[in-house]
Amino acid sequence: MPGFAAIRAHHASARISLLTTRPLLDLARAAPWFDQVLEDARPRFWDVSGVLALRRTLRAAAPAMVYDLQTSDRSSAYRRLLPRATGWSGIARGASHPHANPGRDAMHTLDRQREQLEMAGITTFPPPELGWLRGVAPAGLARPYAVLVPGAAAGRPEKRWPAGHFAAVARALAERGQLPVIAGGPADTAVAAEVAAAAPMAVNLAGTTDLFGLAGLLGHAALVVGNDTGPMHLAAMLGVPGLVLFGAGSDPKLTAPRGPFMRVLAAPSLNALDAGQVIAALP
After folding, report:
1. How far is CA 47 from the centre of its chain?
2. Are 2 and 126 in contact (CB under 8 A)?
3. Could you please report the per-residue DSSP string of 215-250?
4. Strand-pair category, 242-246 with 65-67
5. What span, in angstroms and rounded, lies between the C-alpha atoms of 175 and 167?
6. 117 closest CA partner among 253, 11, 230
7. 57: CB partners within 8 A, 6+ apart
8. Which of 15, 116, 146, 235 could form an S-S bond across to 218 if both were Cys, CB 3.0 to 4.6 Å?
9. Contact 44/74 with Cβ under 8 angstroms?
């Protein structure tokens, strides 16, 4: 979002298109930075008809300049789907505005994107306006409430703090007068149910909110506690006080959520981080 805001400020009168995947289409179309939002179906590169359809989509947008903020092998390969004269900021071979820093992979994502845009000539970085995203607090929740985010990326169990420990935090939050609310996506319903079973005073909303609903839930929370996962970045961007838990599965120097009131608690292993330590570190 900081990168989007900077690109819009630099190209105030340009027609800006965003290419993103289906789960993010509605959210992106509500954002104030884009004139159109295009779907990337992520075709396999041997899917000739799918690649040609993506090529038509990109060429119909007729970009004079592309800012590749993903800088993955896949997104870099998309440069070959556009005319060679198209400007390109990123790491694709032959990019007109390369992010020419050999140490870029050791940078925090936000710092890396900012430097990439600076190398492309963007010098103004206004804070992203997020009033459109915060929305309204969910109906029926007693205030104040605190949000627990016990899920993490599928296939990354080393990034998940034990559900029983989240339940202990839920009980501690209830004792200090904050309603514990469990949040997450459809893939997090099993771990959320485990937390709720051990902390029956908690409200379990995992799997029931879309991205707008999640943003509204987080944006009006008194506190959020969770693993290194997407909702924690969203909470940080919205300025919510929080505590994010890191183990050996990821490096906070590279990926920690950044916000004015977001704290990081790191341990060599999340299994070795006991509930008392987390409760003592709560904002």
Report:
1. 29
2. no
3. HHHHHT-SEEEEESSHHHHHHHHTT--EEEEE-TTS
4. unpaired
5. 13
6. 11
7. 19, 38, 39
8. 235
9. no
Question: Measuring CA to CA, which residue among 162, 170, 163 is closest to residue 269?
Answer: 162
DSSP for 76-123?
A: HHGGGGS-TTSEEEESSTT-SEE---TTGGGS-HHHHHHHHHHHTT--
Residue 249: how many CB atoms within 10 A of its CB? Answer: 16
269 strand-pairing partners: none
Q: Over the stretch 55-113, which tens digit does the pLDDT of each residue have? A: 999 999 999 999 999 999 999 999 999 999 999 999 999 999 999 999 999 999 999 99
Q: For the beta carbon of residue 8, count every other beta carbon within 10 angstroms.
A: 19
The pTM is what? 0.89
Judge whether 152 and 261 are in contact, CB under 8 Å.
no
User: Is 90 exceeded by the pLDDT of residue 39?
Assistant: yes
